[in-house]
């Protein structure tokens, strides 16, 4: 975003706050406090703008990758901490209406994000289950001096199980296409599918942190419900803090929405409307980010994906290419065919390595977001400084 856009928005916010100083009933201490608050609010808006400008300008090979999601969560945590400090430093203002209501509303929205964090951690565990199937393929074929038919059968079975598991259950056409592609397996393939569904149900019953009726789409709608920018009189009445609250509400919604878009979870849905007034300095990168993720979800080869995470796409693509290759393999292998198989196996190994390095740090960050939200309740900020008995 051009610097003039940020400066113009900051000037508007500064004008609203400075108008309070013209009131003769304000003391010198109050004016000094307002001056400090004004600097804090400007710094907060600048941080949000810069961080999401960087996120929204990521190249197509970086957007929605594990590394990008980690940077997204890091940005949220940093913005959340700076916002918390503003509220802590100006408790006397936070206690007054209408700001007390705005702050309380924000913390109620963050609590709704706890279920999203739990569902995302479940989704990360699901990706680990898929990674184990890739590891079976690698165990059978990676770094082998010679390939045998038994190794290929073992690898192909794992690839079929992976494809079935990643398949969107609502897409019956895709399911039929997969069954047709693997028709040569006959009853064995049907048995594999049945066994997979039993295993998946067992995994969910033991590990999922949200109920079967829980919906990520409905939870996102609840977080974004009645999210509107503060009016001018509300900005003035809160010394500008209402703008910071609205900013954090919007960032919370965007981050939770992006997580649901990227990671497999129950009843994924991306129909969340972002209506952000253009005068906010961070509006352009946030809107651009929303549009880019939506555009990614509409691509033909991503519509039925369990998640938009880039590494999931690479996993599915490599597995499909490898499966198609195996359909045409005949023994003994020609030198050319063996070289192609080794190339595809190396691609699978690269995907596995990226997942191995990225899933644990991502889960730790999701857990940190969860605990940061909980901590904000235990320290009493959501009850505006009063003891928290929840």
What oligomeric state best describes the polypeptide chains here?
Answer: single chain
* Beta-strand content: under 5%
Got a strand count?
A: 0
How would the global form be characterised? elongated
Intertermini distance: 42 Å
* Main sheet makeup: none
* Secondary structural class: mainly alpha
Report the radius of gyration as a whole number of Å. Answer: 25 Å
Percentage of helical residues?
over 70%
Q: Detail the poorly predicted runs.
A: 1-9, 15-28, 169-194, 196-207
Order of helices and strands: HHHHHHHHHHHHHH
Q: Note the total helix count.
A: 14
Subcellular location: Membrane
Protein name: R3H domain-containing protein
Membrane topology: Single-pass membrane protein
Family: Belongs to the ROH1 family.
Summarize the structure.
This protein has helices at residues 3-18, 28-56, 66-89, 91-94, 99-141, 149-166, 172-181, 186-207, 216-224, 232-237, 241-262, 283-297, 310-327, 335-378. By secondary structure, the protein is mostly helical.
3D architecture notes:
There is one protein chain. The chain has helices at residues 3-18, 28-56, 66-89, 91-94, 99-141, 149-166, 172-181, 186-207, 216-224, 232-237, 241-262, 283-297, 310-327, 335-378. It is mostly helical. The protein is elongated. The two termini are 42 Å apart. It holds the Pfam family ROH1-like. Belongs to the ROH1 family. InterPro entries: ROH1-like. It is a single-pass membrane protein.
Task: List its traits.
390 residues, mainly alpha, disordered N terminus, membrane
């Amino acid at each position: 975003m051009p610097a003039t856009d940020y400066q113009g928005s900051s000037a508007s916010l500064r004008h609203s706050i400075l108008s309070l100083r013209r009131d003769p009933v304000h003391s010198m201490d109050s004016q000094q406090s307002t001056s400090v608050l004004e600097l804090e609010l400007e710094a907060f808006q600048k941080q949000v703008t810069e961080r999401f400008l960087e996120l929204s300008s990521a190249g197509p090979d970086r957007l929605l990758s594990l590394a990008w999601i980690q940077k997204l969560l890091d940005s949220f945590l940093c913005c959340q901490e700076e916002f918390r400090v503003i509220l802590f430093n100006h408790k006397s203002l936070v206690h007054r209406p209408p700001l007390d209501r705005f702050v309380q509303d924000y913390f109620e929205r963050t609590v709704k994000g706890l279920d999203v964090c739990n569902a995302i951690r479940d989704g990360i565990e699901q990706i680990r289950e898929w990674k184990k199937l890739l590891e079976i393929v690698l165990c059978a074929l990676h770094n082998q001096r010679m390939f045998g038919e038994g190794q290929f059968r073992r690898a192909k079975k794992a690839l079929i199980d992976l494809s079935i598991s990643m398949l969107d259950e609502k897409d019956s056409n895709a399911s039929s296409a997969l069954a047709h592609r693997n028709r040569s397996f006959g009853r064995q393939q049907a048995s594999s599918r049945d066994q997979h569904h039993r295993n998946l149900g067992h995994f969910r019953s033991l590990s999922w942190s949200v109920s079967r009726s829980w919906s990520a789409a409905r939870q996102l709608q609840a977080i974004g419900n009645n999210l509107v920018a503060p009016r001018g009189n509300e900005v003035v009445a809160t010394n500008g803090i209402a703008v910071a609250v609205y900013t954090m509400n919007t960032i919370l919604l965007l981050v939770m929405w992006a997580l649901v878009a990227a990671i497999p979870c129950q009843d994924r849905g991306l129909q969340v409307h972002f209506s952000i007034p253009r005068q906010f300095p961070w509006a352009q990168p946030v809107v651009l980010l929303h549009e880019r993720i939506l555009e990614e979800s509409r691509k033909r080869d991503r519509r039925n994906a369990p998640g938009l995470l880039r590494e999931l796409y690479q996993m599915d693509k490599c597995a499909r290419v490898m499966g198609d290759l195996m359909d045409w393999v005949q023994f003994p292998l020609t030198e050319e065919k063996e070289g192609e198989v080794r190339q595809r196996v190396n691609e699978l190994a690269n995907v596995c390595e990226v997942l191995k390095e990225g899933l644990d740090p991502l889960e730790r960050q999701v857990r940190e977001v969860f605990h940061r939200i909980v901590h904000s309740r235990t320290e009493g900020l959501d009850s505006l400084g009063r003891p928290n008995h929840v």
